[in-house]
Amino acid sequence: MNRSSWWIGGVLVLALGLSVAVGPVMAADEFKIGVITSLSGDLATGGNVTKRGYDLWAKAVNAQGGIEIKGKKYPVRLIYGDDQSQPAQAASAAERLAAQEKVDCILGPYASGTTIAAAPVLEKYKIPMITGSAESPLIWKQKFRYTFGTIPPVNFTGSAAIKVLAALPQGPKTAVIYGTNDTFSKATAEAFQSTAEQVGIKVLRFNILPPKQDMTPLMSAAKVLNPDLIAFGGHDEELINLVKVLTQINFTPKALIMHYGVTEPAFAQALGKNAEQVLGASVWTSSIQTKGAIGWPTSKAYADAAVAEYPKDPADYTQAASSAAGLVFQAALSQLAVAPPLDEAARTKLVEILEKIDLQTFYGRVKFATEGDYYHSNAGLTPLMVQIAGGKEVVVAPAESAQAKLVYPLTPWDKR
Amino acid sequence: MLALLPQAIVDGILLGGIYLTVAMGFSLAFGVLHVIDFAVGEWIMLGAFAGLGFTKWFHLDPLLSLPVIFAVFATVGWMLQPLLQRVLSGSRGRPVLMGLVFTFGLALAFRGSALTVFGIFTHSLDTVLSQGSLHFSRGSFFLTIPFIRLAGLVYALAVIVALNYLLKKTDFGLAIRAVAQNKEAAGLMGVDIKRTSGAVYGIYVGISAMTGVFIGAIVSLNAGMGPDLALFAFFVVVLAGMGYLSGVPWAAFLLGLIQSFFLIYFNPSYVLLALFTILYAVLLISPTGMFRKGV
Predict the structure, then answer these.
(1) What is the pTM assigned to this prediction?
(2) C-alpha dist (Å) from residue B155 to A350, A374, B11, B149, B152
(3) Residue of B120, B125, B134, B214 for testing the chain A interface, max A β-carbons within 10 Å
(4) A31-152+289-367 in CATH: which number?
(5) Which ipTM score applies to this complex?
(6) Residue spans per domain, chain A
C-alpha cells in the first residue's frame, strides 16, 4: 500500500469514528437504568443486598414486557457500576454511567458515603437518582435536587427505637454508645446519643472507632461502667464481632441495639443463640400490612418472590426498599410518558414528578419530603423496632405492627 | 480507670497474639523467598472457610480441623511455589516487582473467587472455647481472659516454638537458613533450593490457613477479610525488621498493646493514626525495624 492510500484509509477511519461520536441520538427501545452500588470491597454484603432488590424489580417489570409509554412497552436494562465501597469510585462510576452509558436515571448506592460522592456528579449531568438504601441524614441536608431515597434517615428510625426502650417500666438508665467511622454508622451513633440524652438516658461513653477495630479493650472498659444499654452503629461484620466480644468477656447489658445489620439474615445465622433478643431498627419486614398499587400487592407477596429468586436469604428492609426504588421510577416514568432515551428536559420533568409522587407499594408509602432537613428522603413510613427471636427478625414496636412482645432485659450469654 | 490497667495489658497481649500468627508465616516467607506475599490475608481467609466447611460437613469442632487444614494448604502452597519461583527468577527485568504483582494478582483472584463461591455474608466459627472466660478479681482490680483468645495466643506461641525448633535444630532448618542467607552459595553446598523454597512456602501457607480458623473463631470471617490482615501483617513485619523472624513477636505485642491502651485510655478514633505515626517514627529513626536487624 502506498502512502496516499494510507492517508485515505486514515481519514475514512477518522470520519467513521466522528460519525459514531456525534451521530444523531437514535430512539432506544429500552430504558437504560444505571446502578451504582458496592459489589466489592468492605460493604459488598450490603451492596449485593441492594443489587438483589434492584434485579428483582427489573425482572418483575420486564416479565410484564416493560414500562408502558403511549401504548408501547419498553423493557428496562440495568447497567451496573461497582463503587468498590469507595466514595471516589462511586463518583467515577456515576461519571461513567452518565457520560458514556448515557443512562436515563440511576438507582443509587448501598452506603451513605458513596451516595454523597455520587450525588454531585448526577447534579452536574442532571440525572435523577433514587437510592434504595443510604440512610445518613447528611445526604438530605445537602438538598441535592436530583437525589431521592426510599429509606428515611437513620436519626428518624434510630431515635424511635431508643424512645421505645426509654418508655419501658424498668427501661435503661445508662448507656454506652459506639459507632464505626463511616457516614452511616457515625450518623446512627449520633442519633442514638442525642435521643438517649433527650429521653433522660445517661450516656456514660460515646466513641467513634475505625472500621473493623477489635473491640475487646473497649468492651472491657464498658464492663466496668456496667451500662444498661449498649447501642452501636456499624455494619454486619462489626455487629457480629461486637456480640462475639461481649460473649467472650461474658458481659450482658440489659439491652443491645444495633440498627441495620441485625435485619440481615446473616446476623442470626452467624451468631445462632447469641443473636437472640438483640434489637434493631427497621422500616419494613415481611409481616407488615401494606397494599401495593404497583408491582407486588403485599409484603408477603414480595417476600415470597424474593425467596423464590434467592432461596437462602430472606429479604430485609434494604432489599425491599431497593425494589421499591425501582417501583417509584416505574410509576414516575409511566406518568412522564416520554419514550427513552430521556433528554435533559424530560429528566428535569421526571424530578418534578418524583417530588409530587405519593405511591402505595408493598414496602409501604413512598412520599418524598420537599423541604427541611429530610429533603427528598421518604417521609411516608413509620419506623419499626425489631428483635431477633427464633433466628428471625420480629417486629416489637409500634404496637399496631407488633408481632411479639419486646423481651427485656437480655438473657445472660452463659444462661442461653 | 486504673483498675483497668491489668486488663489493658492482657487485652493488648491477646490482640498481639492474633497479629503474631498473621505475621509469623509472612515474615518467614519474606526472609527465605524474598517475596512480599500480599496474598497472606487471602490464605487466611481460605483457611477460615475451610474450617467452616469442615464444621458443616463433619459436625466437629473447627479446632479439630487444624491438622487437616495445615496438611491440605501446605500441599497447595508447595505445589504453587514453583510458579512463584518462575516469576521471581525469570529473565524479565525487575523480578521483585513481578513477584509483588504476582501475589497481588493471586490475592485478587482468591478474593473474587471466594466472593463468588462462598457468597457475600459474614460467618462465624463456633468452637467449644467460643464463649466464656477466665475471671480473676482482687479489690477493684479485675481481669477477664476469654478462652478462645487465650487459645489463639497459645497457638501463636506453639507455632513460634515449632518454627524455632525447625530452623535451629534440624538439618532442614539449616538448609532454609542457608537459602535465606545466600541462595547461590547454598546451592553450591548441595542444598536443593527448589525443594527447600517449596517447603517454606508450603509451611507458610499452612500456618496462615490455620490462623484463619482462629480468626474465624475469635472474630468472624468473610470473603473480603484479607486486605486488612495483610496490612497488619505488613505493619508487624516492617516494625520487626523485614525478614527478622525473632523480632516479630515483640512487634506484634507492641501493636496489640498500643491499640489496647489507646482504646481504653485515649480517643479510640485516633487508634490507627497512633499506630501509623509510631511506624513512621520507627522507620525514620531505624529503617531496618525496631531491632535494626531487618533488610
Answers:
(1) 0.83
(2) 61, 52, 16, 10, 5
(3) B120
(4) 3.40.50.2300
(5) 0.87
(6) 31-152+289-367, 155-282+384-415
